[in-house]
Sequence to fold (208 residues):
Amino acid sequence: MTNIRLGMFLELATTIGAICGAWLSALVSTSFIAVLFGVILILSAAISFFKLADPVSTGEGSPLSRWLKLNSSYPTPEGEKPYIVKNVIGGFFMMNVAGIISGLLGIGSGALKVIAMDNVMRIPFKVSTTTSNFMIGVTAAASVGVYLSRGYIDPGLSMPVILGVLLGAFMGSRILTTAKTSSLKILFALVIIVLAIEMMYNGFTHKI
Fold:
């Protein structure tokens, strides 16, 4: 399901953004960024609730998507389903923003990447989530060097979290292939609402 070509292309934007965000984290008020990010997530959750079906894109896509060979297909119970990548430039810009937020707040910003691919680039939701998952590791690795050099990372705290995330990711990837897109979008919207509330709370109470 993962569109590797698309993920590698968009990683150019998120990696640059993540490095910039990591350096800016010492200069910019992360509390303000957290509140702003929370507002964006809540608006995105509302969009997901009203657009539970996958976007239907017709035509040949943009010249850039054809030139980079980003259009592809993904498996469904009815067989391979082709899709067209739209608004490549807009998606690239959104990925840069996602990278900056990732570097500033120390999060993967996978939710913002899924939103960008699903709503801006008009990619099927399952492709958006799996491609975002593919990209998160690269985005995080781009900024982790800056955090390590500043002594912001506690390896002893990270290890148990990693084990839990790996187990959850393995289980989630198994469920994804058979789950209904509408159900996934509802779950996604609920999760990002909780994330948004937590980010805004931490931003207002200066816990970031």
